[in-house]
Amino acid sequence: MTMSSRVIATIAASLLLGGTAFAQMTAPATPAPASKMAPAKKAEKPRTAASLECSKEADAKGLHGKERKKFRSECKAKAAKPN
């Protein structure tokens, strides 16, 4: 057997045996990225009576989006002011 044949045989054997050694290793446990997990719920603040009343008034007026937000903000500010 020539020297080059021995080198090729050694490389082939090491690739075959080395591949099985790597195949038996387990992957390290890593947590799933945040984007794939269910979003965590925020702690909700309890809604005040004034907030609920302002929401009902906004619903009655059919307000949505920025108009609703502005109306509720003003309504809650009025409710918070002492007379």
What does this entry look like structurally?
By secondary structure, the protein is mostly helical. It has a domain at 47-83. It is built from three helices and no strands. The protein has helices at residues 3-23, 49-61, 65-80. Helix 2 runs antiparallel to helix 3 (65-80). It starts with a helix and ends with a helix.
Sheet with most strands: none
Total beta-strand segments? 0
**Termini gap:** 106 Å
Q: Mean of residue pLDDT?
A: 79
What string, H for helix and E for strand, traces the elements in order? HHH
Radius of gyration: 34 Å
The helicity comes to 55-70%
What class would the helix/strand composition place it in? mainly alpha
> What is the beta-strand fraction?
under 5%
3D shape: rod-shaped
> Which parts are unreliable, with pLDDT below 50 for 5 consecutive residues or more?
none
Number of helices: 3
